[in-house]
Amino acid sequence: MSAVVLGGVRRGRVRPRPRVPSWALKVVMAVTGCVFALYVVVHMIGNLKIFTGAEHFNAYAHGLRVVMEPFLPYEGLLWIVRGVLVVSLLAHVGAAPVLWARARASRGPHARTAMGLRSFTARTMPVTGVVLLGFIVFHVLDLTVGTGGVAPETFRRATTEQAFAYENLIASFARPAVAAFYMLTMLALFLHLAHGLWTVVSDLGVTGRRLRAVGYGLAGGVALSVMLGNILILIAVLTGVLS
Ligand code: HEM
């Protein structure tokens, strides 16, 4: 701590800025990451309902908006979920660069050179994270808000009576550039989610080798299932199975 001298008068001491401890930031990353993991798993399972046909899928999308009425207003539960996701996103995106910079500073020039899937996913976390962030903005404008220039021209916004999620999704994925972007993002999601969940398993401090292996396997399995489930929908639209 250094003393401040203003006009020859000592004005007390400059305190270093309070530092949030790294363990607290890691807890924030793990908890908010798990919120997202849960969301993408549930979302992917919901997305797969598209294979049950337009009527069912639109009824499901409408159901999400009116669930728990009249205890909750129209879209009440959706807004609660949106609130949790936005807060989680802000905390996750806020803590990530701080932890990344601290790890980099403490590692110095002695970076690990090991290769392998875990090492690759670890190194690409900032890149896959930024891709996912861009994707989330695009995706919400594309299929929820229906912003011109992003959403398909035929986009129809849900009303209190009806949702058009099926038609909107088919029209969106029928655009090759958009389908390619979604495909690429699903790969980024796999890498990001797998590494995030592996880190959670590792930080949980599971000691048994077998139990750790099961944890890592489960984490990888969840990430792989989310990617494959969503890619299945993209392929089905691109091949005309869904139209
Ligand atoms: C190919 C993969 C995906 C498909 C087919 C898909 C499908 C959809 C559809 C159809 C909607 C609009 C739902 C409605 O209007 O009721 C939607 C909304 C949304 N999706 Fe996805 N999604 C995919 C991947 C993702 C991923 C990876 C994330 C998160 C990282 C995500 C996050 C969201 C969010 C936040 C919304 C807005 C929900 C709302 O507030 O109403 N989606 N998605």
Amount of helix: 55-70%
Count the domains.
Answer: 1
Count of individual beta strands: 2
Whole-angstrom Rg: 22 Å
Major sheet attributes: 2 strands, antiparallel
Associated small molecules? protoporphyrin IX containing FE
CATH superfamily: Fumarate reductase/succinate dehydrogenase, transmembrane subunit
Whole-number mean pLDDT: 91
CATH class identity: Mainly Alpha
Strand order of the largest sheet: 1-2
Instruction: Work out the strand percent.
Output: under 5%
Distance between the termini: 67 Å
According to CATH, the fold-level topology is 3 helical TM bundles of succinate and fumarate reductases
Instruction: Write the H/E string, N to C.
Output: EEHHHHHHHH
Extract low-pLDDT stretches. Answer: none
Shape: globular
Gross CATH architecture: Up-down Bundle
Number of H/I helices: 8
Class derived from helix and strand content: mainly alpha
